[in-house]
Amino acid sequence: MMKKYFIICIFLLPVISANAQREGTWWHFGYNVGFDFTEVFNGNATYPKAICNAPLRQNEGVFSISDKNGNWLMSSDGKYVYTPGSIKGATFPLPTNSADGDFSINKNNILFGNSSATQSGIMCPVPGETSLYYIFTIDDKQSNPRKGINYSIIDLAANNGIGELVTGKINKSVTYGYQKNSLTERYTAANVMENITLTPSSDGNYWLVSIFGSHFHAWKVTKDGVSDTPVLSLSSYEFASTTSSNSYRGGLGHIRISADGTRIAYAIDQASNTTPVGVFGTAFFNNSTGEVTSSKHATKNIAAYGVEFSPSNEWLYLTNMGSAGFIKFSDLANGSMNNYRNMITTGEFNAVMGPKGIMYMIVRGSSTLYTIDDPNNPDTAVPANTYKAHPNFFACEGANVYPFNGLPNFMPSFFLVKALTGPTELCTGAEGEFILEAEQGTSGYGAEYIEWDMGDNTKYYTGDHPLADPSTKPWPTDNLHKIKHTYTSSGIKTIRTNPYNSNGLMPDKEVTLNITVKDCVTYIYINPHLRAKIIQ
């Protein structure tokens, strides 16, 4: 009688997260402090780890960038650039008698930015390049003479990986547009204020955006440089160019573009003397043309400074020289500050959106970190319930190590697509589940669906797409897109996910995951004369 054998194979397969879209992993700011979001991205922590040995030691404008795997690349204050190679061997905090830039890659070739500017600069990769990055800088209103907006290119692979500014591509001035109602008189560096931001364009490049005078300026940024002619769009408010000693605040403040690249908000102080005049504005941005439309503003007698979008773009969080609060984008877009709500009044605040939809606030000179864990749903009845305080978060040993006014200036779209997870190994014939975490953004302009290329000539769609399985429509409320797939052939497969909106493919948002598919052959002996091959 032949015996029957039932063979059950259980495969314990590791699950990993593809390290993509982690350009905001490392934040350096204030006096040698910062954030490390590595474990947040890995799913092992809610909040970042505090850093007490960051290379920057500045009061205000700073900016940092990491690579797509979360490795810190460089940080700057607008003058000096620091990389891992340049600070090797340095001790922090830096000695008080240390000259500025001693541990920078460019201590002999200073950039034209200034850490006293609210947004002293911002960085992005040169499109199509792996080691080349643009560094955009802006100086403060009190600089004399003004340098305005400039850009440089750094090659991070040069100088044995320490990094080096590219000869001939250092401190190149952008071209400003013509002033209101003029075809001959251009804006100059003296008109520029202290705001600058970046957002991806619909064709895979970038837009560099700033507001000053009567116009929004939008420059196209490509691998070949920055456009000579900016796209000009009229602002509802005409900003004065004041530089006198009693009006140092006349021009400070932030500009932000929403992570989906469709909306603009700004907070700019127009104090002409010691009396604050805060100008808060909104507009809509076309990332195909660079045009700004529906510009609106409102004023309030507070010292305007920071502005940040909630992930849903429905709410704006405003910070100033003494408090922080929130208002609906739609209310401010109607030119009203009537529904503005103060939530905290204990110092000079700054706020920036971070990974996983949490907003981070620091207050000048304080070791306390403030977070807004659900910025999409502020408590309008009790505004103070909107934030959490984390005392002694920056519990750094030694004196003079603490946050100041500035948080890093990032391209907000870094935080739209978060992680792709799934098994690293599969057997042919076995089903694997893959999960992409990605935010939708605003209707019509944010991501509408995800295209999945499984690496074996199979494509799936999740979200609002005609070919999407009904179970994956509409966009998941938890932002977790799930696909199950079975491979029929062995080999290394690369899964590629890309978000699309009404304008087509959203640039620089591809997330990939490599998996190894095996035949998983097992031989067993049923009797001495018969061998069976079972494919698991």
Structure characterization notes:
- This protein is mostly beta strands.
- Helix content is 2%, strand content 40%.
- It has 2 helices and 38 strands.
- Strand 22 and strand 23 form a beta hairpin.
- The N terminus and C terminus are likely disordered.
The description of the largest β-sheet is:
6 strands, antiparallel
Overall geometry comes to globular
By secondary-structure content and strand pairing, the structural class works out as mainly beta
Beta strand count? 38
Radius of gyration: 25 Å
N- and C-termini, Cα separation? 26 Å
Q: Strand percentage, roughly?
A: 35-45%
| Share of helical residues | under 10%
Low-confidence stretches: 1-20, 530-536
**Please, how many helices?**
2
Mean pLDDT: 85
Annotation keywords:
536 residues, mainly beta, six-stranded antiparallel sheet, six-stranded mixed sheet, 2% helix
Write the layout of secondary structure elements.
Blueprint: E1 15-17, E2 26-29, E3 33-36, H1 38-41, E4 49-51, E5 63-66, E6 72-76, E7 81-82, E8 121-125, E9 132-138, E10 149-155, E11 164-165, E12 172-173, E13 197-200, E14 206-212, E15 215-222, E16 225-226, E17 231-234, E18 253-257, E19 263-269, E20 278-285, E21 292-300, E22 304-309, E23 315-328, H2 329-333, E24 341-353, E25 359-363, E26 369-372, E27 388-390, E28 417-423, E29 425-427, E30 431-438, E31 449-453, E32 459-463, E33 480-486, E34 491-501, E35 504-505, E36 511-518, E37 521-527, E38 530-535
Parallel strand pairs: 29-36
Antiparallel strand pairs: 1-28, 2-3, 3-4, 5-6, 6-7, 8-9, 9-10, 10-11, 10-12, 13-14, 14-15, 15-16, 15-17, 18-19, 19-20, 20-21, 22-23, 23-24, 24-25, 25-26, 26-27, 28-30, 30-33, 31-32, 31-34, 34-35, 34-36, 37-38
